[in-house]
Design brief:
With about 290 residues, this protein is α/β, with parallel strands linked by helices. Helices cover about 50% and strands about 15% of the residues. The strands form two sheets. Strands 3, 4, 5, 6, 7 and 8 form a six-stranded mixed beta sheet that branches. A two-stranded parallel ribbon has the order 1-2. α1 links the parallel β1 and β2. α8 crosses α9 and α9 crosses α10. The protein is globular, with a radius of gyration of 20 Å. About 25% of the residues are buried.
Length: about 290
């Protein structure tokens, strides 16, 4: 077990230094270097065949690592394996994030969003080393999503349909604060546009126009606000282009692409993420 200390100011350092188990190793960053540096520092310092990760405020179920190691041993073609996770707001609502399980569905879903809960993942070291893959600091806030997108063309993906981690959701967290800060949301959106453009070009051989990318981003925008009927029509036209490009390139399973596009279309009329947050906060405040 590697403990990456990124300039912590609590008792973590003292506690870890008291451990006598040689399997626990402390890696200290030179000051506070951030999540991407820490993730890559951990990869470089690790020695195992597989690399699992989680954040300090999440809770791994006791059987998590055993389940994932057994799965990876049984499926040598899989280089990235996640699990279901129970997300919870402290003293508030709880829900299970499931999503697709099979590699074909996961790769198609990556066209629009990451289906992986980052702290649940296990990576096969040989895939990272063979292709020189690491978390990319040029994609802050979505560094995990970016890594899955560059792994998808070179390995198989999987999610174990078991809840093996409890993921703490806080409005003060990196993800939570992005939803509430429109400036940070806009920055994240610009980074995602680059990510989506790269993945679409890599998998479909298609260079999206500015208009097409805006339609693509509107699916993401629907998380914080409902989109207009005109935008929905633009998204439907863009889906038709994606289907046609995939028919020519055949990177994704055509049936799966159809299912994923249909699911994205249904999400446009579902309650937005901000609506869900407001409801959750209303429950916490007794409103």
């Amino acid at each position: 077990m590697l403990v990456i200390d990124d300039g912590s100011t609590d008792d973590t350092l003292r506690m870890v230094e008291q451990f006598t188990d040689p399997r626990i190793r402390l890696i200290r960053n030179n000051g506070n270097r951030g999540i991407v540096f820490s993730l890559n520092h951990g990869i470089e310092g690790s020695r195992g065949q597989y690399i699992a990760r989680m954040d300090a405020d999440d809770i791994a179920r006791p059987e998590r690592l055993a389940r994932q190691v057994a799965f990876m041993d049984e499926h040598p073609a899989v280089g990235l394996c996640g699990t279901w996770a129970r997300k919870f707001v402290p003293y508030g609502p709880r829900w299970i994030q499931k999503g697709p399980v099979a590699s074909a569905a996961l790769k198609a879903t990556l066209l629009f969003a990451t289906p992986f809960v980052h702290p649940t993942v296990m990576l096969r070291r040989s895939v990272l080393e063979e292709h020189g893959l690491r978390y990319d600091p040029a994609f802050p806030g979505v560094e995990d999503y970016r890594l899955w997108c560059v792994m998808a063309p070179v390995t198989e993906l999987a999610i174990i349909p078991e809840t093996l981690l409890d993921y703490r959701v806080s409005l003060s967290s990196v993800t939570g604060s992005v939803f509430l800060d429109r400036v940070r949301w806009a920055q994240r959106r610009r980074i995602l546009l680059r990510l989506w453009s790269d993945y679409i070009e890599k998998t479909l051989g298609l260079t999206p126009s500015a208009e097409q990318l805006e339609a693509h981003a509107a699916i993401h925008d629907a998380k914080i606000a409902r989109v207009s009927p005109e935008v929905v029509m633009a998204i439907r036209r863009w889906f038709a282009v994606i289907r046609e490009a995939n028919e020519k390139r055949q990177f994704f399973d055509s049936t799966v692409v159809e299912e994923v596009c249909s699911e994205m279309e249904r999400s446009l009329v579902a309650p937005s993420m901000m609506e869900k947050v407001r409801r959750a906060m209303g429950c916490l405040l007794g409103k």
